[in-house]
Amino acid sequence: MPSKSIPTTSIRRPLPVRPRFSRFWDWPEDDFPAVPKYESGHVFTLEQRVLKEMFQKTSYAASADETRYILNGTLMSFKANKLTLVATDGRRLALTEHELEFPKEAETDAIVPRRRSMNCCAC
Predict the structure, then answer these.
(1) 48-122: which CATH topology?
(2) Based on C-alpha coordinates, what's the Rg of the chain?
(3) Does residue 93 contact residue 82 with C-beta atoms inside 8 Å?
């Protein structure tokens, strides 16, 4: 595509862009919710080998079915001085735990997408 500027003369109308089959919409910034700002985060230190083993034990059970998106990941739970990884596809359930020291206020849960957990296993 040649490097030319794209005219944006109106809002909510297709912009004239070529290559074929492409359409871009110009939406005002105010139409979107603000991105939350995280002022403080918690750092957890764990050996790479341990985390890789935990993902190897659980990631196979995460669903690959795109229609069941809620099951397409691995839950990482940092609670009660344990790191717990859980994955399921509705038929299989995989769970593994590892003792980990962290302050009570650092307890949290996070879902790691299936592709990312599979990448951790490949290292």
Answers:
(1) DNA Polymerase III; Chain A, domain 2 (3.10.150)
(2) 21
(3) no
Q: What are φ and ψ of residue 105, in 5° steps?
A: -70, -10
The structural domains of the chain, with segments of one domain joined by +, span: 48-122
CA dihedral 79, 82, 87, 93 (to 10 degrees): -110
Using one digit for the tens of pLDDT, what is the confidence trace for 92-108?
999 999 999 988 888 98
* 8 Å CB contact between 76 and 106: no
pTM above 0.85, yes or no: no
Task: For 24-59, write each residue's pLDDT tens digit.
Answer: 667 787 888 888 787 767 788 889 999 999 999 998
Contact 81, 102 (CB under 8 A): yes
For the chain, give the longest Cα–Cα distance. 58
Tally Cβ neighbours within 10 Å of residue 86. 19
Cα–Cα distances in Å, from 95 out to 3, 10, 61, 121? 51, 53, 9, 16
Q: Which run of H or E residues covers position 111? A: strand 108-113
